[in-house]
Amino acid sequence: DIVDFWKVRRGPHWPQTHNDVVQKLLRKVRQGSRLIYIPGNHDESLRDYAGTHFGGIEILQSVIHRTADDRRYIIMHGDEFDVVVRTAKWLAFLGDRGYEFALWLNNPLNWVRRHLGLGYWSLSAFLKYSVKRAVSFIGAFEEAVAAEARRHQAHGIISGHIHHASDRMIDGVHYLNCGDWVESCTAIVEHDDGRLEVIQWN
């Protein structure tokens, strides 16, 4: 979900900061880094170009990553295992609009909280996590993703999609979720020894 085409359809929004990120990534490619773009459900139209290169960037549905300590991890977006996205796309669109509204509400809510001497609190994250936990969405998603790793006899799997960062073992499979760059501000890094870690930008 690097480019949110769901949102772009409702009116283009591409500030200079977005260009800055793209330019930094392209500079890495020019300096010899391998960059793979794995589209998600918000930029799924790019999946039609899987297997091609644009400006040195590879577009793939999924990829096997081998860590420095020789463990195999499947990397994929993960929406393939989301029943709502696969069977009721209209509900996914509706949920996306509700999530955007909750994100917008975060600003005035936290302005009030700051003036009351309280710390940051995310209404959107609270609502999303509470609702999904109520229907056991996250647990079912994680189990399905871990089963995919077992099917490929991989040590683990790295996905995104549910915006819920995670680093845990599920029945012998190392499951990692990168979370997101919008709200939880999390990512996954690999250390020189092959250890994978979820980091958070505070």
Search tags:
21% strand; three-stranded mixed beta sheet; 10 strands; five-stranded mixed beta sheet; alpha/beta; 202 residues; 6 helices
How would you explain this protein's 3D organization?
- The longest helix is centred in the middle third of the chain and has 27 residues, at 89-115.
- 39% of the residues lie in helices and 21% in strands.
- With 202 residues, it is α/β, with parallel strands linked by helices.
- The model has no long low-confidence stretch (mean pLDDT 82).
- The strands form 3 sheets. A 5-stranded mixed beta sheet has the order 4-5-6-8-7, with helices on one face.
- The chain has helices spanning 5-8, 16-30, 83-87, 89-115, 123-134, 137-151; strands at residues 35-37, 53-54, 57-59, 62-66, 72-76, 156-159, 166-170, 173-177, 186-190, 196-200.
- It is globular, with a radius of gyration of 18 Å.
Quick summary:
By secondary structure, this protein is an alpha/beta fold. Helix content is 39%, strand content 21%. It has a 5-stranded mixed beta sheet with strand order 4-5-6-8-7, with helices on one face.
Furnish the topology, listing elements before pairings.
Blueprint: H1 5-8, H2 16-30, E1 35-37, E2 53-54, E3 57-59, E4 62-66, E5 72-76, H3 83-87, H4 89-115, H5 123-134, H6 137-151, E6 156-159, E7 166-170, E8 173-177, E9 186-190, E10 196-200
Parallel strand pairs: 1-3, 5-6, 6-8
Antiparallel strand pairs: 2-3, 4-5, 7-8, 9-10
Order of helices and strands: HHEEEEEHHHHEEEEE
The shape is globular
Give the helix/strand class.
alpha/beta
Q: How many strand segments? A: 10
Percent strand: 15-25%
Low-confidence stretches: none
Q: Write down the overall mean pLDDT.
A: 82
Rg over alpha carbons: 18 Å
User: How far apart, in Å, are the first and last alpha carbons?
Assistant: 21 Å
Strand order of the largest sheet: 4-5-6-8-7
